[in-house]
Amino acid sequence: MNKIILALVAIWVFSPLFVFAVPINSDVALTPFKGQIIIRNQAKYTRKANDPTEKDRDMQIWMFPNTFVYGLTEKLAFSLTAPYIIKEQKSTSAGIRSAISDSGIGDINLMSKYRVWSKDLSGEARRISLIGGLELPTGDDKAQLKLGSGSIDPIVGVLFTRQSLNQEFDIDLTYQFNTEASNYEFGDILKYNLAYQRRVWPWKLPEKGVYSQLNLVFELNGEYTQKDKSAGSLVKDSGGNTLFISPGIQWVAKRWVLESSIQLPLIKDLNGNQLETDYAIVTSLRLTF
Amino acid sequence: MRSKIYIIQIITIALCFFIAHNVFAEIEKIDIGVEGLSCPFCVWGLEKKLKEVKSIDKITVYLKQAKAEISLKSDTPLNIASLKKAVKEAGFSVGYIYIIATGNLTEKEDQILFYIKGLGQEFLVYETDAMSKAKLLEVVKSNVTIRIEGKIHEHKDIAPSLGIEKIELLK
Predict the structure, then answer these.
(1) In chain B, residues 103-162 whose CB comes closer than 8 Å to chain A
(2) Binning pLDDT at 50, 70 and 90, where does residue B76 land?
(3) N or C, which end of chain A has less CB nearby within 10 Å?
(4) What are A99-147's pLDDT values in tens digits?
(5) What is the reported pLDDT for A23?
(6) CA distance B1 to B11
(7) Is the predicted pLDDT of residue A252 greater than 80, yes or no?
(8) Closest CA to A168 of A286, A264, A26
């Protein structure tokens, strides 16, 4: 079953229709127009390995987050992200290699974005936005391979975007305050992202009309996590800092965006014995209505 | 005989339509400079919001020039506020509004006005580098229909103003 899913994901990711893609892993300060609906379907495959213990664990995670965005005004937008997660972990015990897996809905994110500052120039937009929201405990936190945190976790963040006809530059910082559930508290998460996109086709813009364009994307995606707490005590094999370099490619049309990227770890500074991310591949399609 | 009557009726209707179209097609074109418009994905929103303005007939967006070229329906005046509202709700700002229109220059209470007869709409005309007040007054005195190109600006409680950059005397 998992092989079929993997094959489907691979076909989607590597299909010529979807170009070898590279998606955007950062957020942008741009907000949708009043009444705009954006739907984003993502597929993300993550492989974790390098277990320093004798169990030699490795894990594969498929995530399919579906996001619905609505622009209440041109400054204020709301979004809902519901991920479907499939996890599979292999480990060795008494010389025997075995696998466990879990799948289901993960934690749903309800977010709002408010544009607090903007500067419009001819062919250029500069924006600063604030985000705030909650991660809801819809994922199964009792599963062997947890699909959710079990807690309601507030998220806040600040975003900056400078977009011109040729290129785009984004910075975002978000902080997730994880709370306790079932006597366990995941560590707070600070995400820090830097993204740069450059239009590579058409290199020279046509004088008239609106064109589709191909962008190359370069991102640095960082995630610093505090140690988890179990019954009030710090869990030594938790928390740390990971920084990914994420090259990508993006096709932008008037009604849709198709994008894909691969995330490769630059810095893996994790506490204790933890699985490290080898790589992640993301593909996403955004449609606007 | 009957076929001749049909032909005459068709010609009469076509003439009426032609005359009506020319009477009301007095604002030929409007260019809106849209500041902040910087990607193809953003254009969709702008087009959608401008289409909601009832008086707009046709919209063409030029991304490189960051402008939307629009033409109005034949019997509707230019409502600057509604254009600005549409651009704002799309998430952008209006940089300028440039029109090409046909009408007459008149003088009222020491103020030069550009009057579009078919629409009953007038603009306060101000002096520009391209068009001095003396030159404008010459046109007023000649009392001919003119075709103008220029930038317009909105004001509270008074008619919008127009900075004429080109004038063509028609008749």
Answers:
(1) none
(2) confident
(3) N
(4) 999 999 999 999 999 999 999 999 999 999 999 999 999 999 999 999 9
(5) 34
(6) 16
(7) yes
(8) A26
Q: What is the pTM of this model?
A: 0.85
Cβ neighbors of A253 (< 8 A, separation 6 or more) are: A212, B40, B41
What are the tens digits of pLDDT across the range B99-128? Answer: 999 999 999 988 999 998 777 788 999 999
B contacts of A164 (beta carbons < 8 Å): 38
Selecting from A34, A208, A211 the residue whose C-beta is nearest the C-beta of B40 gives: A211
Predicted confidence band of residue B10 (pLDDT cuts 50, 70, 90) = low
Closest CA relative to residue A276, chosen from A49, A45, A87: A49
Take residue B26 and report the two structure tokens written for it.
């007095």
Reported as half-sphere exposure (CB side, CA atoms, 13 A), residue A39 has a value of: 5
Cβ atoms of A168 and A161 within 8 Å: the answer is yes
Is the minimum CB–CB distance between A226 and chain B shorter than 8 Å? no
Amino acid present at A136: L
Give residue A165's identity as a one-letter amino acid code: L
Residues of chain A numbered 98-157 and touching chain B (CB < 8 Å): 118, 120-125
A39 touches chain B (CB under 8 A): no
B57 Cβ contact partners less than 8 Å away, ≥ 6 residues apart: B70, B71, B72, B73, B74
d(CA A8, CA A59): 19
Sequence-distant (6+) residues with CB within 8 A of B41 are A252, A253, A254, A257, A288
Considering only CA atoms, which of B39, B83, B98, B86 is closest in space to residue B64?
A: B39
Query: What was the ipTM of the complex prediction?
Result: 0.81
For CA atoms A27, A169, A285, A84, give the dihedral sign.
Answer: negative
Within the 236-275 window of chain A, which residues sit less than 8 Å (CB to CB) from chain B?
Answer: 252-255, 257
Residue of A nearest to B95 (CA): A122
Given CB atoms, is B59 within the 8 Å cutoff of chain A? Answer: no
Q: Which residue of A has its CA nearest to B59?
A: A209
- Residue among A134, A125, A137, A138 at smallest CA distance from A165: A125
| Pairwise CA distance, residues B122 & B30, whole Å | 16
User: Chain A contact for B98, CB < 8 A?
Assistant: no
Interchain CB contact of A205 with B (< 8 Å): yes
Q: Where are the beta strands (DSSP E) in A18-75?
A: 37-49, 58-71
Give me the mean pLDDT over the A172-194 stretch: 96
